[in-house]
Design goal:
By secondary structure, the chain is of the alpha+beta class. 24% of the residues lie in helices and 31% in strands. The protein contains 3 helices and 6 strands; from the N terminus they run E-E-H-E-H-E-E-E-H. A 6-stranded antiparallel beta sheet has the order 1-2-6-5-4-3. Strand 1 and strand 2 form a beta hairpin.
């Protein structure tokens, strides 16, 4: 899993996993797995799933990279406190799943809540069948 700044301001975690390295056959299977993770978490709550590929492909001006076969988001919230109105700007959370011909790319934006980051990182790492849990993020 890698962590980087997207457009020099968004801290993003990303994992690209070859289809041969995972038990999941498509984006829907990964989204279903992540849905189970959210449902089983003591704090997280599912909000929705969103088919980004269908949305973008339906737009007259929509553009999708040639190597993207499917793209969906699972949207959920970990919010345990509402100390002020400003925290609404960093909620809810989502994990994006993209299918390419030979791999899946799973991404999420770093949350300001360590509990959320640890959960999302754990869920995403488990998509790889033989994940090295001790591996540093920049592998």
């Amino acid at each position: 899993m890698q962590q980087f700044l997207l457009q020099e301001k968004y801290p993003v975690y990303t994992l690209e996993v070859l289809k041969t390295e995972t038990r999941f056959s498509d984006v829907d299977a990964i989204i279903a797995y992540l849905n189970d993770c959210v449902s089983e978490h003591k704090i997280a709550r599912l909000i929705a799933t969103f088919d980004h590929f269908d949305h973008t492909s339906a737009l007259p001006e929509g553009e999708i990279a040639n190597d993207i076969l499917a793209a969906k988001h699972i949207i959920f919230c970990f919010g345990t406190h509402l100390p002020n109105a400003h925290v609404m700007a960093v909620r809810p959370r989502s994990i994006g799943v993209v299918e390419k011909p030979d791999s899946f790319v799973v991404t999420f934006l770093e949350a300001p809540m360590p509990l959320a980051n640890l959960a999302m990182e754990s869920w995403v790492r488990a998509i790889v069948d033989v994940a090295d849990e001790s591996a540093p993020l920049d592998e």
